[in-house]
Design a protein that fits this description.
Keywords: Signal
Largest sheet: 3 strands, antiparallel
CATH topology of one domain: Alpha-Beta Plaits
Number of strands: 3
Protein name: MerP protein
Pfam family, one: HMA
GO molecular function: metal ion binding
Structural class: alpha+beta
Order of helices and strands: HEHEEHH
Distance between the termini: 75 Å
Length: about 120
């Protein structure tokens, strides 16, 4: 009886240990991506669309340097998918150029040659 109890306790701790070990890969990762955003509307659009990307936990775009910081679950998404989301929205994402259809849908102020005062103006 004592060996059964000991075996059960040992199995429990082994299972808990394996669960903790496998969830170490679930750790949140962070990536910084340079965009072509120019105004507050761009910021809202990029952050809103990234919120719908599976695995993205948080995104914040800094308009001063045009860099979006994205926190994500690497088991559910990756940097390529995040960049694809940004380019389909109409913006450059590091070395990946904006999708033409997405770019054409942007308001004039959000296009690269639009105003760059960093303020929303619509």
């Amino acid at each position: 009886m004592k060996t059964n109890v000991f075996s059960l306790i040992a199995a429990f701790f082994l299972l808990v240990g394996l669960t903790a070990w496998t969830s170490a890969d679930d750790k949140e990762k962070e990536v910084k991506i340079k965009t072509s955003a120019v105004c507050e509307m761009c910021k809202e659009r990029i952050e809103r669309n990234l919120a719908f990307e599976k695995g993205v936990r948080e995104s914040t775009l800094n308009l001063e340097d045009k860099v979006v910081t994205v926190k994500y679950n690497p088991k559910k998404t990756d940097v390529a998918k995040i960049k694809s989301n940004i380019t389909k929205t109409g913006y450059d994402a590091d070395e990946v150029a904006a999708d033409a259809k997405g770019y054409d849908k942007l308001p004039a102020c959000c296009k690269k040659d639009g105003h760059s005062d960093g303020k929303g103006h619509h």
